[in-house]
Amino acid sequence: MRKHKIVINYFSSNFKLGVLGGGQLGKMLLTETQKFDIYTVILDSAADAPCSQICNEFHIGNLMDFDTVYNFGKKVDLLTIEIEHVNIDALFKLEEEGLEVYPQPSVLQTIQHKGRQKDFFVENNIPTSPHKRFTSKEELLKETFNYPFVWKSAQFGYDGTGVKIVKNENDLNSLNDTDCIIEDLIPFKNELAVIVARNKKGDIKTYPVVEMEFHPEANQVEYVICPARIEDSVAKKAREIALKVAESFEHIGLLAVEMFQTENDEIIINEVAPRTHNSGHYSIEASYTSQFEQHVRSILNLPLGATESKAAGIMVNLVGEEGFSGKVVYENMEEILSMDGVTPHIYGKKETRPFRKMGHVTIVNDNLDEARKIAQKVKNTIRVISNSKRN
Amino acid sequence: MRKHKIVINYFSSNFKLGVLGGGQLGKMLLTETQKFDIYTVILDSAADAPCSQICNEFHIGNLMDFDTVYNFGKKVDLLTIEIEHVNIDALFKLEEEGLEVYPQPSVLQTIQHKGRQKDFFVENNIPTSPHKRFTSKEELLKETFNYPFVWKSAQFGYDGTGVKIVKNENDLNSLNDTDCIIEDLIPFKNELAVIVARNKKGDIKTYPVVEMEFHPEANQVEYVICPARIEDSVAKKAREIALKVAESFEHIGLLAVEMFQTENDEIIINEVAPRTHNSGHYSIEASYTSQFEQHVRSILNLPLGATESKAAGIMVNLVGEEGFSGKVVYENMEEILSMDGVTPHIYGKKETRPFRKMGHVTIVNDNLDEARKIAQKVKNTIRVISNSKRN
C-alpha cells in the first residue's frame, strides 16, 4: 500500500517529486532539487514555462483540470505546488489514495478562498481586520457600508488583481459580480511578511520579518527589505503570529504570512500564501537556507535549515515597463552587474508586457543602509523593455 | 563577419553559450546560466552526465575528437570549457574562424601540458619549484637524481593521478613511460589556492586565499577552508602571485592557482587549472559572487562580481567510500542536514566507486572555528556507500 511506503532516499534515487506549476517559483525550486539531485517532474499549461527545459520531466496540461492533475499525481511519489490555483478535488482524491500532497489539500482549499481564509483566522483567534462574506454582487449591495472599505474577490486574485479600495458609492459600480469579501480598511505603518517552514514531524521555523517599502507616491511596493526596520518587540510579535498561523493550519511546507503593523503597533494578518513567495526571494543570497531549499526540506520531512541571514538583503522586482510589449530586452544589465552584491534573476519569459513579473534583483550587503542605497541605484538603472515594438 | 559580431544581450536572448564537458562543474555553472536565463548547450561523452537533463541542449560526443568539437563549436556563439582535456586543434580553428573561445586555446595548450606550464612559469618569473622535462622514460633514466623528487606525467593527470613522489631508485620502476617532468620536492607548511577571474576588458579580481587542510595521517585533503588561517602578509603575497599568473597568460575566464607556502613563507606555484575549481566550491554559499557566476561574467566580458565572503566557508568533498561500488546511497544525510549552515551538493552520478567524487558539502558560519567543528562532524557522519553490493 502506497500510504505506508517509506522513502528513505531522495538523493540520486528513483524518488519522483511532482510539482504543479512551472513558473518562476518552480524554476527557483529546481535550483535546489538539482543541487540535491532529486528527480523532479513538473506540470504546467505553457510549453515554454520557465521550468520547461531544466527539469527531469515536463508535462503540459491544465492545472485546474481534474483528470490532468489526478493523472499527473499518479506518476509521482510526492506532490507539491508552486501556484495555489490548482484542482483541489484531484488533490483530495490523490491524498485519499495515499499520495503525500504538501501543502495539504485541506489547507489549500481554505487558503484558495479568501472568505474561508478569513473565517479560519477568526475561528483560530488570529488577528485580522473585521470582514464580511458575500456570494454575489446583489447580496453585497444590500449591505450598509462604512466608506472606505476593502473589497476582495474571494478567488483567483493575484498580485493585487481582485482587490479594490471602495471609497464611495460610485466605486461600487466597478466591482465584479462574484463571490467576495469586504474588510475594514485599517490604516497601517508597515506592510510586513514572515515566511514559516513546517515539516511533517512538526519542526517549525520562521524567517526574519521582512518589510515592504512602498513608493511614496505610486503606492507600489518597491523594495522587500530583510530585516524589516522595525522594533524588536514588533518583529517578535510578527514572528509569533506567523508561527501561530502555520500551527493552526498544521501546514506542511512553506507558508508566507503577509501582515500589517497598525498605527498602534498591533500586528494583523492580511493574507497567507501556502508556498514560496516573492517576499522570500532575498533568502537565495542572504539567508543560510534559501526559501526554496527550505520548502524542499519541509515537504520531504527533512530537518529544517537555519533561517538566519548571512547579510542584509533587499529585493527589487523586475517588471515589464509600461509602453513596451514583445521580445524582452534587459537594458543596463551591465551597469547593475557592476554594483557590489547585486544578483539579477531572470525568469526566462521571452516576452515582456506592462507590469509582467520578468525577474528580480537581490542586493546583499553587510550594511542594510548601504544595501538600500544600492537597491535604489539598481531600481533607477535597469529597465525591462522591448526593442521590437512600443505600444 | 562573425569576429565583429557584438552580442549585446545574453539574457533571454538567442545567444548560445557552448560548454565542453557536462560534469559537476558544468552542472554548477548551469545554476548560474539558468539564473540569468542564458541559453546553454553542452557537449559530453556520457549520455547520463550530470548536465544532461538540465541544459537547453545536450549533445553527446568525444571531447578529444577534432570534428566533434569543431562541429559543436559551429553551433554556438561563445565557447567555454569545464574540463581542460579537450581537442585544442579544433578550438584553434574555431578561434581563427572568429568564434570567441574562453579560456583561449593558447592558454589551454600551455596549461594542458605540465612541461609547457612549468616553462611558462619560469619564463614569466613566476616562482615555482625547479623542474626538468623528459619526453620518455628512457630519457628520464639517463638523469642523475636527488631523492626524493616529484614525478608528474605531462598530460592527462587528474586529482593526483599521474603524480608520484619518488623516494629511491626502486620507485623508478613504477613510473610510466611517458612525456613527463620532475620537480624538486619542496617541504611546505600549507597548500593554498587562489581563484582569479579576468574578463576581456582586462578587469581582474582574486578571491580570498583558501587553505587545504590535510588528514594528519592519510595525507589527503580533508577540508578546503576560506579564509586560509595564515598571516595577512602571506595571503597578500599569494593573491599577488595569482594575479601575476593570470595577467601573464592574459587569461580570460576563471583561473585556479594552486600553491605552496614554504617553510620560509615563500609562495611557489604548484599548478594552475583554467576553469572553476574544487577549491572554489565554498563560494556558492560563502561568497558574494559564486565562482560559477564569476566564470560566466568573465567569459561574457561582463563586470566582475564582488569576491568577498559573506561568512566563513569550509568545503568537504563527498567521495565514494572504499569497499562500495554500485547504485549510490548517501547515508546519514538527515543528520548532516540538521547541522546549521550545512549544504550538501549531490552531483547526480548514479553509481558510486571507491574515491569517486560524488558531491561536496559546504559549511558556512559567522565563525571559522565553529565552521571547522561542524565540518568535522559532517565528515564523520555522512557516508557515500551502496546498498546493492560491497566489493
Automatic annotation (TrEMBL), chains A, B:
Pathway linked to the protein: Purine metabolism; IMP biosynthesis via de novo pathway; 5-amino-1-(5-phospho-D-ribosyl)imidazole-4-carboxylate from 5-amino-1-(5-phospho-D-ribosyl)imidazole (N5-CAIR route): step 1/2
EC number(s) given by UniProt: 6.3.4.18
Domain ATP-grasp, chain residue ranges per copy: 118-300
Entry GO terms, CC: cytosol
Binding site for ATP: 114, 152, 183-186, 191, 270-271
Single Gene Ontology MF annotation: metal ion binding
Pfam families, A to Z: ATP-grasp, PurK_C, RS_preATP-grasp-like
InterPro entries documented for this protein: ATP-grasp, ATP-grasp_carboxylate-amine, ATP_grasp_subdomain_1, PreATP-grasp_dom_sf, PurK, PurK_C, PurT/PurK_preATP-grasp, Rudment_hybrid_motif
Catalyzed reactions per annotation: 5-amino-1-(5-phospho-beta-D-ribosyl)imidazole + hydrogencarbonate + ATP = 5-carboxyamino-1-(5-phospho-D-ribosyl)imidazole + ADP + phosphate + 2 H(+)
Transmembrane segments: none
Example of a GO biological process term: 'de novo' IMP biosynthetic process
Keyword check for Cell inner membrane: no
Alphabetical keyword list: ATP-binding, Decarboxylase, Ligase, Lyase, Nucleotide-binding, Purine biosynthesis
PROSITE patterns in alphabetical order: ATP_GRASP
Family, per entry: Belongs to the PurK/PurT family.
Protein's name in the database: N5-carboxyaminoimidazole ribonucleotide synthase
Organism: Lutibacter oricola
Gene: purK
